[in-house]
TrEMBL record:
Biological classification of the source: Bacteria, Bacillati, Actinomycetota, Actinomycetes, Micromonosporales
Domain HTH asnC-type residues, every copy: 3-64
Record Gene3D superfamilies: 3.30.70.920, Winged helix-like DNA-binding domain superfamily/Winged helix DNA-binding domain
Name of the protein in its database record: AsnC family transcriptional regulator
Secretion signal span: none
Keyword Transcription: yes
Domain of life: Bacteria
PROSITE patterns the record matches: HTH_ASNC_2
Gene Ontology cellular component terms for the protein in this record: cytosol
């Protein structure tokens, strides 16, 4: 699917505020509301836009402790096996295969250090995990909700 500059601006505006009206987006990209809706429908049908969601502030719900955990796995553990396992843990924010020594990097969020420790122990108990190396986040310096500039 071809994505032009207008599509990119629409995507960036939706990433910044998924509740923005088609009329508001249209005024910012010089299109009518129906034209924006057609483009959004086309982007959704093509799988470019996979859905709309609420972004919740973790601190507002009490999950203020976070860490990045390098997973070291046994033998021929596949990314699919890692993916299935980490989805069982509600503290997992994201998981990624990575280059370097570790097999995967897991982003965890928890209520406090005790909760984080419990989550780490459950993650370490997965049958394929041979060891982990954790880094606790002290402060967030930058965060972006999605792709591209939000013009």
């Amino acid at each position: 699917m071809q994505i032009d500059a207008v599509d990119q601006r629409i995507i960036a505006l939706l990433v910044a505020d998924a509740r923005a009206s088609y009329a508001d987006i249209g005024s910012r990209v010089s299109l009518s509301a129906p034209a924006v809706k057609r483009r959004v429908d086309r982007l959704r049908a093509a799988g470019v836009i996979r859905g709309f969601t609420a972004v919740v502030d973790p601190a507002a719900v009490g999950w203020t402790t976070e860490a990045f955990v390098e997973l070291f796995c046994a033998g021929r553990t596949t990314p699919a096996q890692i993916g299935v396992a980490v989805r069982r843990h509600p503290e997992v924010v994201g998981a990624y295969t990575v280059s370097g020594e570790a097999d995967a990097l897991v982003h965890l969020r928890a209520a406090d250090i005790s909760h984080l420790e419990e989550a780490l122990e459950r993650l370490r108990a997965e049958s394929f995990v041979t060891s982990t190396r954790s880094t606790i986040v002290l402060s967030r310096l930058a965060e972006s909700p999605g792709v591209g500039p939000s013009t």
